[in-house]
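## retry 2 of 3
previous attempt timed out at serialization; input unchanged, resubmitting
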Amino acid sequence: MNVLIINGSPHQNGNTSIALKEMENIFAEQGIGTTVITVGNKDVRGCVACGFCYTHGRCVFDDEVNKIAELFEKADGLVIGSPVYYSSPNATVIALLDRLFYSSHFDKTMKVGAAVVIARRGGCSATFDVLNKYFTICGMPVASSQYWNSVHGRTPGEAQQDAEGLQTMRILARNMSFLIKSIALGKEKFGLPEEESRLVTHFIR
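## retry succeeded, writing output
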């Protein structure tokens, strides 16, 4: 079993890394492998609605998005970590996730998702809400913890002082591990939930 971790911070060893590392350690204890990709320092452009992915199942821009899509398809879970910029995820994270989720056509049903947000002070819950929407639009169960998945810190390393935030990360990783293992057992015994043909409606007046 493997969890793909996307670090949306532009700082390689910043506070987002501290939060995600806390989860990595628990995943290792639980026998779950991790693959960590840092994207905050990458040049990722936004979607241009060209429609290429409709027929090709991948984005027309052959950058980090298509590489990550291959890892995501093989993963049992996805953790997205982002610093809070103006009460939302940073622009690189949004650009990447929009294209990743829209252009990749593989079945994401029952892959477990978790969002992790890091801020100096405010904007955590708004950013948390934005990231969770990527999971809930495609049949991905969302892992939870003892509190909203946030850690506080501004200067590099300051997140180490947020004892409650780091405990929240550890509990999140344990809960996510449990869900991944439970879903794997459920698939063996019951299979995936029954699918229906997709209905799409438009409300235009």
